[in-house]
Amino acid sequence: MTFPIHRPRRLRRTEALRDLVRETRVSAAGLIYPMFACPGNKVRVEVSSMPGVFQQSPDQIVEESREVADLGVPAVILFGLPEKKDETGSEAASPTGAVQRSIEAIRKAKLNLVVITDVCLCEYTSHGHCGVIKDGEVLNDPSIALLADAALSHVRAGADIVAPSDMMDGRVAAIREKLDANKFTDIAILAYAAKYSSAFYGPFREAAQSTPQFGDRRSYQMDSANVREALREVALDIEEGADIIMVKPALPYLDVIASVRERFDVPVGAYNVSAEYSMVKAAARNGWIDEQRIVLEIMTSIQRAGASVVLTYHAKDVARWLKSC
Question: Which residues are catalytic?
Answer without folding.
Answer: 195, 248
